[in-house]
Amino acid sequence: MDLRLPIGYVFTIYGIMLTGYGAFTKGAEMYKKSLELNVNLIWGVVMLVFGIVMLVFAKKAGKA
Amino acid sequence: MHFLDSILFLASAGGGAVSLEGLKPDLNFIDWSILAIYLAFVIGIGFALKKYNNSAEDFFLSGRSIPGWVTGLAFISANLGAQELIGMAASGAEYGIMTSHFYWVGAIPAMVFLGIFMMPMYYGSKAKSVPEYLKMRYNEPTRVFNSVSFAFMTVASSGISMHALADLLHALLGWNYYVSLFVTSGIVLAYVLKGGLSSAIYNEVLQFFMIVFGIAPLAYIALKDVGGWEGLVAKLHASPQGQGALHSWAQTGGTENPMGVPWYGILFGLGFVLSFGYWCTNFAEVQRALAANSMGAARRTPIIGAIPKMLFPAIVILPGMIAYGLTSDAVATGYTIPTNASGALNYNQVLPSMIFHYFPNGLLGLAITALMASFMSGMAANVTAFNTVWTYDIYKAMNPDKGDRDLLTMGKYATVFGIIAAMGFALVASNYNNIMSILQLVFGFVNAPLFATFLLGMFTRRSNAMGAFWGLVVGTGSAMIFHGLCFATGNAPGVKGGWISPLIEYPKEMSQGFWVAIVAFSTTFAVNALISCISRRDKTDEELKGLVYSLTPKQVEDNDPWILRPVVLGTIVFIASIILNIIFW
Q1: Which CATH class is domain B3-436+561-583?
Q2: Interchain proximity B213–A50, CB inside 8 Å
Q3: pTM for this structure?
Q4: CB-based contact (8 Å) between B35 and chain A?
Q5: Strand ranges (DSSP E) for B366-422?
Q6: Could you give the CA distance from residue B62 to residue B284 in angstroms, rounded to a whole number?
Q7: Which residue ranges make up each domain of chain B?
Q8: Strand-pair partners of B100
Q9: Chain B contact for A64, CB < 8 A?
Q10: What is the ipTM of this complex?
Q11: Burial of B384 (0-12, 13-18, 19+ CB in 10 A)
């Protein structure tokens, strides 16, 4: 089993979830906690990119 | 989802006092989904690896088939248990930048040394465990002594982890302490039973990324809140810690520093005895490298692990320092460290309380999942090390004719009763305040004598079985006696030291722990060397081949790119840690 696959899936799922949730809750009261930063949106995108990179590497290795 | 519902039901039925009242966040559907997805993947990985687990070799050693980057990250993740996140943030608040000694002095040099100098013998000898190496190098009694004390230590430290997690979930989310204990250990039990060591290692890597992604945003948000690095420096300067919080070495001329340890105590006690003892002889760590698919990968394992280890202070110690800075500022209306019943700062709650203060739903679920992941990784590492030592070094040593099938079965039993024993220890752990200090004490008893034994065994031919065995016995005994004679200021004589007679006083529990370890190491080293010198050598050069450094063939790694050669990579990592020490002098 290529470990990059499950890791890629987990973080792609988390990325989509947090990005979506962040976009949906834009300007919500709870972002006062994080100093008015929409951390869900920002961090969601970061995790999404990480997840996709992992998946791409795993697929590449799988083909070779 | 019924699984989480049942936790919630039992938790609300259990009730109990919540120490973070008012801070307790409301988890919503997104937080719960993040946690549920993580748990599903962790157990899923265990089941996915089940089909590769047909023999004892697979279950205990992963069939020596795992690539170096995986074992390297697992190596560091295995150490990311209770002490790492909660304890290091707590120490960051309590001791300031001096906490970085646990990384740049107390980890990196030892990890590099393990990879470059010790791994050729560990991996090359084909030993299945650290105690088995001791049997090859010395004799059966030495192995028995080590396997029994190691088995105790793994149970003790996973017990401490479990206690910390259950206590945290109770304080944070109001979950019942015992239910938390059973559920989290049940999950670890499930994936270790199904997938053996491979499952533990693969999950450790997933857990490593969970921890980094879950905790890293805290440092950024908190730093922004305190007004950047300059803001933090100004606040700490004005605080009771003053300059002390901002220098790792500058004030270690005496014991007048937050740790109460002078520089030579740090270098020798932490940087040498405790650190090399832990990283180089603790089988829960070494086992990860033994699962690697080649000698090169095994040697790179601790060195690859050292790279993230070096950077971890930025995400765990820094938030702790910020927490203290914000708390000490009288005009602050924002974050403050929670206090316990007597009004003292409760450092162990620094990290969770900051997460609650700064993280909105979404990120909150991610961070709570990260905390769970950290406890599971530390615990699974101990469980897999325990079941291997129990099965090969205790059970098989007593029943040499047992076959593969019996060993696999015994390994599974050992996994179950190891976890049950750890739960018992979890209840003992609830007597202590700073988790880190107890762990240091436990390691002082067990690992320091072992490291002295390895140092003489791996790097001299002269050291013999009689010296090794009596060195271990006398060294461990002397550590216990010394612990009974010394205590830390403010502690009554008892489990925390001074139970024979409170003769020697140290300013902090931490300095006490360092000196206990130094005594254990020095006594073991002296006794082993003395006996080995006055008695005859018991193994010929031929028998010691591959077990002693000078009799082990030099490693040829022409196939690896030069940057990945253990010596090159190790040297780079080592120099980087020296530079970090200088920057934060």
Answers
A1: mainly alpha
A2: yes
A3: 0.88
A4: no
A5: none
A6: 14
A7: 3-436+561-583
A8: none
A9: no
A10: 0.95
A11: buried
